[in-house]
Amino acid sequence: MSERLAVAAFALVTLVALWVAPWAAFSRETGSRAAVILLPDRVIDFTGRTDPISVPGQGAVLWLSVAGLVVVAGGAALSGRARHVAWLAAGALLIGTATWGLAQFDAAVEARRAVAFQEAIAPNIADPRPNQDAERLRQLSEEALERPVTVSVELAREAGVVVRRLPYGGSAPGFAAFLTLVVGAAALLFGLRVWPRAGRVLDRVLTAVAIPAVSIALALLAAAVVILLLQPTPVGRDVVVAGPLMALAGRLDTLWHAYYILFSGSLGTVKGFFDALSFATPLIFTGLAVGFGFRAGLFNIGAPGQMVLGAIGAMFVGLYLPGPAWVVLPAAVLVAAVGGGLWGAIPGFLKARFGANEVINTILLNFVAASLMLFMLSSSPTFAASAVRVIQLIAWVVAASLVGLLVPPVRRAMRISPRLTLALVAVIALVGAVVVAQPRAGDQPVVLQLPFKAPGSEPKSYELSEAARIPRLPAMFGIDLRATPGTNVVPVDAAAWIAGLLAVLVFVGAGAVGALRRRGFQGRILAALGVAAVAYATLAAVGWRALPLAIPPTNLNPSFLIALAAAVFVWVFLFRTRYGYELRATGLAPKAAEYGGANIPRNTVMAMAISGALAGLTATHYVLGGALEDYALRQSLPTGDGFDGIAVALLGANHPVGTVLAAFLFGVLKNGGSAMNIAFTDLTRDVVSMVLALVVLFIAAKGFLPDWLTNPLRRAQALGDLPEEPAGGTPPGGGTAGGEAPVIAPQVAASQEDR
């Protein structure tokens, strides 16, 4: 589908939506019932007890929106600069009209709520109680229209009156307003092609995000069908849905409100945003782990097991390593990475040495890791005496094998016939196990009391020492939630935070400035420090050294920063080092990379080890960061994040930046799923799981996009990054010799004409 056709079709759909879909909603009640406004001046009440609101200017909003949409749709028939100018003008008109119309709606709702506030406190003004300030209440009533209602309610509380609930609350934009804004933004975006340089940048951005964006849109569209099938239109007790328009408006409002809650639950409040970051933190680690393996041509599906080994290692360090926090905490983080790295290196070694499929090995190791954690956290695990003897025999065999590797003849035999040597060791172990497993007189069950297991039946370890704990966000600002639960307002030195962020950005971006790049590392450091000093002095002068900041209770902790640092490490390693180049070359063309001098076995083991280490770092969030209720290892460790990391890596195109953004999107959806389940009783968090699964499905199908967008070579040719094939040559993507044009040529020409 061409760009012009897509924009025109979207504009026509929005034209229909302006008439049948809600423009805005108000009086949203428990159960998601609401009264909705349709343009112009039509109110449908699904609550059964809400008086209509008159919003000024709705007729103007309707006709201006229609005019803008007609220009967008008709502009698609124009060519070149005329189309782009028309889209720029229409986009600005649509966004301005929708914004003004929603502002008028908010003002009308706020005015009605102010009147309701006056009516609520009127009896207390006429007949005040001893603890109520009648004069202050009278003043609040007179000034109700001049201040926000929420402020008036709080001031009334101070005057002795508690206003519990006012009508006309829960106002929000509707589906029609959203579509109008989206069409306006799309028209503005594509209208930027009026400037050639902006058009080239837009082409590159759109081709980079086309597959994930279309996949997400298709997943949400498919999930919409399920939402409409599962969730009936919420209505009041005495409300009867009369007529097709009311029925259609109710269904569209239900669908829109479900998605509105899904995203606004994380993006509309500070607490929701922090919780979304908390959900995203482990997904960044697992997404980087899977994406790193993909870059090397390996499918690391063992992130769940690597998460477990990293968590176990972090738990041991947090329990038994003495010392100050600056020693114990880094050691715990390092051991978490080492534990996951060693568990990932095992299938890497098996693939490099014996050609064993890493998918099968990592899946099986997931079960081994899960069983290991289950054993470690079980209450009083009991073994038969014969089983203990078998375990001891296996330990002796492994120890003897490791010692034997130090003997030169054994090491040479292992090198010459590794399979035969391992088979011989396995046969010896198997025969010995059969012998020692025979029952003996006096055998008694052996009950193990593991020293790190917390007392009781709950499968968890003892809590970590204080030195091994990463504080949660409230604790970082000196807030004790046990003493002051809920949201706390604390002064924050915003000048220092912003100056530090600017310093990092300047240091990173200075590499693109020729003069600073020539000055080297010291020049970039001095530039960053200079900008930070000026920024801090400026912000401190305007009073930003002690800004009040509301800190909600949240499990977010600095492991999020560790995740971002891991993403930076992966980017630098893959795209700025020789080893990263070798890994990517090995993943794209192993034979060619080996011919060019790449060490395939070493790269395989290294890639799986680094991938496992990234997955093991999830322990910084769940164990060291206390995200599992307390600072301990629990059997409830959500190893499902390891499988979600596959979807995150695919959505992020196996790139560190894309992985971070995809993980944040998944965090938003996971957190919003809880809010959606509260608002709609028939919609569980399984809807979110379905959306995530559909995203993976559509990414695998490449969003059903044309080949010139999904094929990297053809996309590069379309963008002009590759030279045209000479006449008589065979194009890399197909074609024939003898002077025929490459197969890509008509598609590229068509795509450029469509723009």
Task: Note down, in words, how this protein is organized.
The chain has 755 residues and is mainly α. The protein folds into five domains: 2-194; 269-381 and 468-487 and 552-654, no CATH class; 382-447, no CATH class; 488-551, no CATH class; 708-754, no CATH class. It contains 29 helices and eight strands. The chain has helices at residues 3-20, 58-75, 81-126, 134-142, 149-158, 175-191, 196-230, 244-267, 270-295, 303-320, 325-354, 358-377, 385-404, 408-416, 418-436, 473-476, 494-509, 514-541, 559-576, 578-588, 590-595, 600-616, 619-622, 640-651, 656-679, 686-700, 707-710, 712-718, 744-754; strands at 24-26, 35-38, 42-45, 172-173, 382-383, 446-447, 488-492, 547-551. It has a four-stranded antiparallel β-sheet with strand order 3-2-1-4, sandwiched between helices. The protein has a two-stranded antiparallel ribbon with strand order 5-6. A two-stranded antiparallel sheet has the order 7-8. The termini are close together.
Secondary-structure blueprint of this entry?
Layout: H1 3-20, E1 24-26, E2 35-38, E3 42-45, H2 58-75, H3 81-126, H4 134-142, H5 149-158, E4 172-173, H6 175-191, H7 196-230, H8 244-267, H9 270-295, H10 303-320, H11 325-354, H12 358-377, E5 382-383, H13 385-404, H14 408-416, H15 418-436, E6 446-447, H16 473-476, E7 488-492, H17 494-509, H18 514-541, E8 547-551, H19 559-576, H20 578-588, H21 590-595, H22 600-616, H23 619-622, H24 640-651, H25 656-679, H26 686-700, H27 707-710, H28 712-718, H29 744-754
Antiparallel strand pairs: 1-2, 1-4, 2-3, 5-6, 7-8
